[in-house]
Each structure stands twice: as structure tokens, then as C-alpha cells.
Amino acid sequence: MSAIVVADGVTVHYRRRRWGPRNSALDTLYLRVEQHRHLALIGPSGAGKSTLVRAMLGLIRPDTGQILLFGQPVDTLSRVERARLVQAVSQHASGSLSPRFPVARTLAEPIHALGLPDDPVTRSTELLELVGLDAGLLNRRPAELSGGQRQRVVIARALAARPALLIGDEMFSALDAGSRLSVVDMLARVADTERTTIVLVSHDLGVARRLCDDVAVLDGGRIVEHGPCEKVLARPTHPLTRSLLDAAGPVTA
């Protein structure tokens, strides 16, 4: 199986003050994300999860080491090349929807911007069907949609680029429990249909287990445990993983 992402000895420093000491957000981190095996990134706040996904997106450049996307250093790819390979959905992504634009324009924009060959009308209808929404919503604006519907539209917009990798940073946490499970299950089906690999940052271990094949546990900018979800979440070996599981309570699929 080929790796879609490789983090090769990645270190990222930051300063709390301009002239203060440098601290490591990521500390010589190594990771492989295998194609078509969804990965959950878990760990306490400040562990380096969001820094890692920002590096995967090419938004920050490591101080040492590199992130490879399909074998290419991500910081050597153009903005359009990156956008065609990797897309991201965050916790409050629905706030990025323009209140003035109907869903149809929202979904057509990345198709035009990336120069994709898809017919915008046909693809927009297909995208709504993929995420479990009726095509009748194409002419509606965000204010006319529920929170769950808006998040599905954001996911559809990310999928419009046909990315090989979709990164979700707490992408379900703004949803209520009922909507969350529905959207998680929808995304699992869509990822299979679109052949998209998912990297998910989440504090919800139940969601991680439901969606992901593998899990990596971060602490202090390093990966302290990594393996299949059914193994790591059932029989953790690192004290941090055990404490996260204890805090979360029973983890159900």
C-alpha cells in the first residue's frame, strides 16, 4: 500500500513572545498516512495536532524535515496543485459560506477556480446527492439551511475538487449528537465512493473509531502511539492513550 502523506522528521518551532525561547509544536515527528486508510489524530490540547495538519496543507513550513504528498514536498506544490490534492474542513467551516451565495454557486466556485473539466451544474447536483442532500437546496442560501445541512454543503464543496486527501479538524464537533453520527456515516460512504483518504483531528474517540482505520496519539509534538483503531483503542500501551480513553468513557463503534 502506498503512502499518501509522509511526515519525515518534521519539527516546527514557535515563540510565545517575539524574543522569547523557541518551543516545539512538532518535535522530529515521523508519520505515514496510507492511501485509503483513514487516520485519526488524537491527543490533549497543545499536542501538535493542528500544527501537523497545517503543515500537511502547506500552510506552514517545517523548521526541519519535510511533508511529502504523493512523494512530493508539499511546499514545492503550487496553490492549485495542493488544492487539487488536499482539501480541509474545520470545526466552524460553515461560517465560511457566503450568506449571499446560493448553494449552487458555492459548489461551482472550486470547479471554476481549479479549472476542473466537470460541468458545474451536473457536478453540483451530484455532490449534494453524495452528501445526502436534496438537489432542491441548490437555490437556497446558508441562512435557509440547518447546521447539519450547512456542514454537509461545506463537505460537498471540499469534495468538488476531487481531492485525494480530506483533512477534518474537529469537523463534527459543532453538530449535535444525532446529526454528528449521520454526517460521520455519510462521509465514510462518500470517501469510499470518491476514493478519498481522510485525516481527522478529533477529541471524540467514538467518532474516530467509527470513521477511521488507524489512530495516531500525539503528545508534546511527537507520536507516542500509532496503529489500527481496534487495537490502539481496545488495548492501549501508552499511559496518555489510556488516560484519554478513561476520560472519554466507553468508546463505542
Q: Care to describe what's here?
A:
With 253 residues, this protein is an alpha/beta fold. It has one domain: P-loop containing nucleotide triphosphate hydrolases (Rossmann fold), CATH 3.40.50.300. The chain is 35% helix and 26% strand. The protein contains 9 helices and 10 strands. The strands form 2 sheets. Strands 6-7-8-3-9-10 form a 6-stranded mixed sheet, sandwiched between helices. It has a 4-stranded antiparallel sheet with strand order 2-1-4-5, with helices on one face. A hairpin with a 2-residue loop joins strand 9 and strand 10. The mean pLDDT is 90.
How would you summarize this macromolecular structure in one to three sentences?
This protein is of the alpha/beta class and 253 residues long. Helices cover 35% and strands 26% of the residues. It contains 9 helices and 10 strands.
